[in-house]
Description:
- With about 270 residues, this protein is α+β, with helices and mostly antiparallel strands.
- The protein is built from seven helices and seven strands; from the N terminus they run H-E-E-E-H-E-H-E-H-E-E-H-H-H.
- It has helices at about 10-30, 95-105, 120, 135-150, 185-195, 205-250, 255-265; strands spanning about 40-45, 50-55, 75-85, 110-115, 125-135, 160, 170-175.
- Helix 4 packs antiparallel against helix 5.
Amino acid sequence: xxxxxxxxxxxxxxxxxxxxxxxxxxxxxxxxxxxxxxxxxxxxxxxxxxxxxxxxxxxxxxxxxxxxxxxxxxxxxxxxxxxxxxxxxxxxxxxxxxxxxxxxxxxxxxxxxxxxxxxxxxxxxxxxxxxxxxxxxxxxxxxxxxxxxxxxxxxxxxxxxxxxxxxxxxxxxxxxxxxxxxxxxxxxxxxxxxxxxxxxxxxxxxxxxxxxxxxxxxxxxxxxxxxxxxxxxxxxxxxxxxxxxxxxxxxxxxxxxxxxxxxxxxx
Length: 267
């Protein structure tokens, strides 16, 4: 039999497919916490129509990284949101203040809200997205949040002022607020700092933020499904190939040729 079955030299091709799938998995693992990892950090993205915020568990926030959490000793969760220094703290701000914030902002503030209820219960009616970050990616996201505070010295807390609620505080922040760089953009930048594949430059509204996050999550689900289907196809092919080899090995005339064939496949 002169046929060397060169067409069956598929292991290199299968290896390429394997490496490709693994490289995509590795890229996703840049931010996403796989089930194999022991330390997953939960990040909640919350928005109620126009304003977005990030919510973290206080258990996952180092006081060395964010010394301001000392102001919330009884809280289970902390909400971080960012806005204009004049418009955000004033619940009665009018159109002029809004225009000034959009085009002539004099600065920004961070608003931290501490609470103990479950996240879904604390934000009734809001859209809540729960993301599981790998530990290192989470640390980078947290570092971005920490760098937003305008502190006199890095190790000292930023000076707090009364928040919108009795259990919240405002802190001076950076950079300058604008229409094109608002709370939704800031949340997107925080996620991007944690390696989440999002384009902050294309985020102005809460809807745009939600749309980008939803696309990433749906792509992750689709990839997981397609990769499972691919591996199932490969598994079935290998089983069939193995059965064919076993049948050939039972025949005395085929056995010597089979040995030559298997050697040729490894060349």
